[in-house]
Amino acid sequence: VPGQALERSIRDVFLPGELKAALVRLNPEIAAQPDRADEVLYRLNAILLAVGSEGLARANQALMEWLRNEKTMPFGENHQHVPIRLIDFDDLSQNIYIVAEEVTFKPARVEKRFDQVLYVNGIPLVVGEAKTPVDSRWSWFDGAHQVQGYEETVAPFFVPNVFSYATEGKVYRYGAVGMPLDLWGPWREDDGQEHSHEGLGHVGQSVRAMLSPQVVLDMLKDFTTFAARGGKTMKLIARYQQYHTVNKIVQRVVLGKTRKGLIWHFQGSGKSLLMVFAAQKLRAHALLKNPAVLIVVDRIDLDT
Fold this sequence. Notes:
This protein is of the alpha+beta class. The chain is built from eleven helices and nine strands. 38% of the residues lie in helices and 17% in strands.
C-alpha cells in the first residue's frame, strides 16, 4: 500500500490499530480486557523513547525480547505473569503482513521518507532503499549509506528493525542496525540451482527468497544476536550460508536418524556464529524440549 494510506500519524513508528488488533488476537488475556493492549503499547513506546540514552543497538536488543514473545505481563489469574505474544511464529497465517512504499516519518524537526517498509502486525521489521538502475552514479552502496543516515537521524523507527536492504536493481545487500557497510551481504537461495550473481534476475531471486514471511520471522527469532565489543553493543545477523546450514542441522536433529554430522567451512565464513545460531534455534525448538548444547572452542577470544 502507499505509505500515505497507512492508518498512522507521521510520528508513529508502529501502526497502532494493527498492533492492538494483533495483541487482542494472539493473547486471550488481552482479548478478555482489550484495554490491556494499551499497557503493552506504552511499554513498547517507552523503549523507542529510550533510544536517545541507550543507543540504537541496545534499544533494538530490548525490543527484540518483546518481538520474540519473551516478555511477560501480570495479566493472568491473581496477577500471574503470562507471556505476551506480538507475533505468531507457529502459525504464520495469524499475522498481518503489509508492504508499504514511500513511508514518511517525522518524530521531531527532521523528516525522512523510506522507499519500502515491511510491517508484521503493525511493527516495521524491515526497511528497504531502492536506487535507480539507469544512472551509473548510484549503487546499492548509496542506498545502504542512506539507511545508515536514517539510523542516526530518526533512530526510533529502527528500534524494531530486524534488518534493512538496499538495491539499485543490479545488486541486493542487507545488514543489521549499526553494521558497517563492508559487512552488508548478499542473499542466495539454497535450492541447488545455478543463479546469477548480478542483475535484475539476481535481485528478484534474493527478494523472493529473503523477504518472505517465513525467512524474515526466522531471522528475527533465531538468527540475530548481540555482542559486547569495546564497551559497545553490536547486533549480529546471519549470512545466507549460516541460515541454510543451521536449518539443515536442526532438521537433522529433529529427525533423529543420524547421531553425528560434519560441516566443512572456508576460513572466515562465520563458523563460530553459525554455532551460536544453531544452539539458539535448537534450544528454542518445541520438539527438542530445551536440549543441552556443548560447544568446544580452541581460542580464548572464542571462549569470551
